Amino acid sequence: MEEAEVDAEVDPNIERIEEWRRKGFKVDTLEEARRKGPQATSTEFAAFEHDAQKLKQFEAILNNFPVMGLEQEIAEIRTKLDDRTRIAEIESDIEFLQEKIRRKIQKRKDEEDSIKQELEKKRRDEKAADVYDLILKYQTTPDTEAGEAPKEAQKCPKCGGDLDESGVCPKCPAGPEEGLDFSKPLMSELRFDGFVMGPGSKFAAATAVAVAENPGKTYNPLLIFGGSGLGKTHLLSAIGCHMLKKDPELSVLYVPSDRLVDAVEKCGTGDGLRRLRDALNQADLLLLDDMQFLAANDRAQGEMVYVIDRMTESGRQAVFASDRLPTQIPGFNDRLNARIQKGLTVDLQPPDMETRIKILKLKAQEKKLKLSDEILEYIAERVTLNVRELESTLNKIIAFSSIMKMDVDLNLVSDILKPMAPVQETRKEIMKEVKVTPGHCYLIEEEKPMYSNVLLGRMMAEGYRGLVITRMNPSRIKDEFKEVPQILWLTDKQSSMENTVPPSLEMIIHKIQEFMSGEGNGMVVLDGIQYLASNTNFDAVLRFLRSLVDEISESECVFAVSLSPQTMKEQETSILEREMEVLNLT
After folding, report:
1. In what order do the strands lie in the sheet with 522-527?
2. Alpha carbons 364 and 391: distance in angstroms, whole number
3. 175 by DSSP, 3-state: which?
4. Per-residue 3-state assignment (H helix, E strand, C coil) for 529-555
5. Spatial distance between the Cα atoms of 139 and 82, rounded to a whole number of angstroms
6. Which of 151, 162, 208, 430 could form a disulfide with 235 if both were Cys (CB 3.0 to 4.6 A apart)?
7. In 3D, which of 328, 267, 256, 262 has the Cα closest to residue 296?
8. Where do the DSSP E strands lie in 221-361?
9. Radius of gyration of the chain (CA)
10. What DSSP letter does each residue of 424-446 carry, written as one string?
11. How far is CA 444 from each of CA 41, 167, 451, 501, 559, rounded to the nearest angstrom?
């Protein structure tokens, strides 16, 4: 102790070094310079103080960073702020982070603009559909005049009266209070008995029936999400029609979100907004369609938070439909998302081949159109996206055959469908340009494992063996392949119909190694990284992938991971992108 005091008296630089140490800086370079002598110490102190100021400036920059989900990366940079020897590294990290934030802000702006553009497109499409319906009605009118019984008028599910040509009941107001034009009448023709169930829609339909039978209980609110034209609006309307059939006195409100956004903007903040809120709160059942468009207005989202709270507290039912999950909607309110998460979320998947044929048969019967099985299969093979597209195709066939006075046969249908390149064919054209090499691993960024399956189909056509490990029920994807690969359903459930593998990393590696030991080239597609991470943790999944990457590099196999970037944290996606070759198809 006495020696230390003597040293401090002899060399005052010791106290200066200790002062920097107390401030949290690493002082190794100062101590080394002190041992070299006064000149080196003086030079090092000057450089050290200059660099310390720079490190403080870096800290100020980090303090002013918008967080935006980058907490961990910011924290990692902070751990370097005590070491002046890492200034160049810190500068590089901050520049990278600034660019990342700039891209995130731009991406969010682009996504918000996209929501607005989708809203405008929806309105344009509705106007175009109205015009098309008029043309179709005009072209089919002569057949009715020729002696066919006129079509029975649609009935209002509320009062039982006839709806007018636009589907509006002249007796019932548009909403629970006149002057608030944000709701629409239920479409009485969209009932449960007209909903064709398939593997991709069975659970959602069963849940909708359960809600209609026992509203305001377990599944409240209910969110039905899926791509355009898959039947979300049909299920919403079916719930409403079913409940009104049981109790005609119920107040059922069907609200397209774009109308609600318009109403909120027109109401302002005074008495008009109170009346709108009261109108929503009068409903025993609220059916909110196209929920993603709420993101266009913060106040509309705030009102919906209030409405959900009131409805769930009083045992009244709310059902939402959206084309994506709330977490994937830019600008979506966290509080509103939290309310929705308290209920149940179910999804609708595109119909498989068998379901598409069933839908076509039903729609053709409704339109009194006789189509052979050959024609039905021909249409179902080419129109794969959704139910709405299938019905639109039938309408085109009816209109074309009526206008041209031609019988509906395969040649006519073929001519009509020529301009409609099937989505599967479009994907094939895109994937023709993608080159993959044995021994390489690829991260295919896509919304769903569609492009990766097309790539696998192409490789199998070239003689490769195929293995798919997927979160999707195999029955949904088998018809995507001309030659069906080995498919393992990634699930912790047992199945008597499908081959399954549990979310065990060791078991999956064993299955892949077993596949790789076969003769000839092979390709493995893994879909479900986020599911594996949720069952273990991301670090374990990363070690699992690195092990596979090493094994694949010494083999004649191709390994592809299908990933929807929205399902992972951005930092986790960035790490995966560094481990594999990236094919971005989002």
Report:
1. 500-501, 486-490, 465-470, 522-527, 557-563, 441-445, 581-584
2. 9
3. coil
4. HHHHHHHCCHHHHHHHHHHHHHHHHCC
5. 79
6. 208
7. 262
8. 222-226, 252-256, 285-289, 317-322, 344-348
9. 31
10. HHHHHHHHHT----TT-EEEEE-
11. 55, 45, 8, 22, 10
Q: Give the integer Cα–Cα distance in Å for 230 and 406.
A: 31
Would you put residue 68 in left (φ > 0), alpha (ψ -120 to 50) or beta? left
CB atoms within 10 A of CB 132: 14
Beta strands 557-563 and 441-445, pairing class: parallel
CB 261, CB 331: distance < 8 Å: no
Most distant CA pair in the chain, distance: 119
Q: Strands 522-527 and 500-501: what pairing?
A: unpaired
- Residue in 275, 283, 320 with CA at minimum distance from that of residue 301: 320
Q: Is 255 exposed, middle or buried (0-12, 13-18, 19+ CB in 10 A)?
A: buried
**E strand intervals along 336-476:** 344-348, 441-445, 465-470
Q: For residues 537 and 498, is the Cβ–Cβ distance under 8 A?
A: no
**So what's the pLDDT on residue 2?**
45
DSSP secondary-structure letter at 152?
P
**How many angstroms separate the CA atoms of 394 and 372, rounded?**
13
CB of 33 closer than 8 Å to CB of 16 = no
Residue type, 128: A
131: tokens are 């015009």
The domains located in the chain, with CATH, are 2-98 (no CATH), 192-348 (3.40.50.300), 353-420 (1.10.8.60), 424-584 (3.40.50.300)
Mean pLDDT by 10 residues, the chain (586 residues): 47 79 82 82 82 85 77 85 85 83 76 73 62 51 43 58 53 47 84 89 92 89 88 94 92 91 79 83 92 87 90 93 85 88 89 88 84 86 80 81 78 73 50 76 85 87 92 79 88 83 91 91 92 88 92 91 84 85 77
pTM greater than 0.70 (yes/no): no
